[in-house]
Amino acid sequence: MKEYVFTLRPTDAPALATVRHLPRLQAAGDGTWLWLRIDGPADKAVWQLPAQQRYMADADGVLFPIGHVTPTGKLPTLAWQKLTDFMPVAPPVSALPGVVQARYTVRLVPSSNDHESAALLVPFDVWRDYVVTAPSARLARLCFAVSERHEALILGTPLPPLPGQTCWRQHDLVLPAGFDFEAPFLGALTARRLNPQHDAIIYLDTAGHWQRILHTQFVAASRSAVRHTQTQLSHG
């Protein structure tokens, strides 16, 4: 069976995230190029990759540039891997990781999609001052947790009208409003990787940092809960 073969620069490895979910794709590196091969018809997304060369390979691995009948080389002997193994997902970490060739770091990018607001990140003192005077009815549908950096993550609806980072929710992930993953499938993969037990909320920011907050660490919004939190922070 004939195969399509593509070569990419190593610096273009992040582009492979757009085709990582497609079956029948294999990849390898030779130190100069990233090689991608697929048996049979290639998906439209594959053709949109920033490939430097595109070939048709025959059963003997002889390479024919697309649209030409004269071969220009032969498919090298490489350690081919399924694309999902060649480029494993690396979740964002609390310190930005170094770049490893052909390894893709999950990141958030600006998005024009509209999402319902589901969380708000504010300094704890801003949240505390609001709770002191807010009607109990406004607090009844909210819960919160506070980080070591004295930031309050508030969940619920409607959210309080406070200055802070508005967020939306995807799976167990809380993402800043106006941002999303580069590829749709990365949300589910990241959630499984960072929260395999589904026992926490993961907050990610645009700098690649993340915080894991257990469901048990969220408490119902009330004046007494805020006072108790204030006491703990003061003694911490």
Fraction in beta strands: 25-35%
Number of helical segments?
6
Poorly predicted runs of 5 or more residues: 91-103
How far apart lie the N and C ends? 67 Å
Instruction: Give the number of DSSP strands.
Output: 19
User: How are helices and strands ordered from N to C?
Assistant: EEEHEEEEHEEEEHHEEEEEHEEEH
Biggest sheet strand line-up:
18-17-15-14-11-13-12-19
Helix content: 10-25%
The dominant shape is elongated
List the domain count as a whole number. Answer: 2
Largest sheet features: 8 strands, mixed
What is the averaged pLDDT score?
84
What structural class do helix, strand and pairing data support?
alpha+beta
InterPro entries: bpX2
Organism: Dawidia soli
Domain MoxR-vWA-beta-propeller ternary system: 9-227
Protein name: MoxR-vWA-beta-propeller ternary system domain-containing protein
Write up what this structure looks like:
By secondary structure, this protein is an alpha+beta fold. It has 2 domains: 3-87; 119-235, no CATH class. 19% of the residues lie in helices and 33% in strands. The protein has helices spanning 44-47, 83-86, 124-133, 136-139, 186-194, 223-235; strands at 3-8, 25-29, 34-39, 53-57, 62-65, 73-74, 81-82, 89-90, 104-105, 108-110, 119-123, 142-146, 151-156, 165-170, 173-176, 179-181, 200-204, 210-214, 219-220. An 8-stranded mixed sheet has the order 18-17-15-14-11-13-12-19. A 7-stranded antiparallel sheet has the order 6-5-4-1-3-2-7. The longest helix has 13 residues, at 223-235. The protein is elongated. Mean pLDDT is 84; it is low at 91-103.
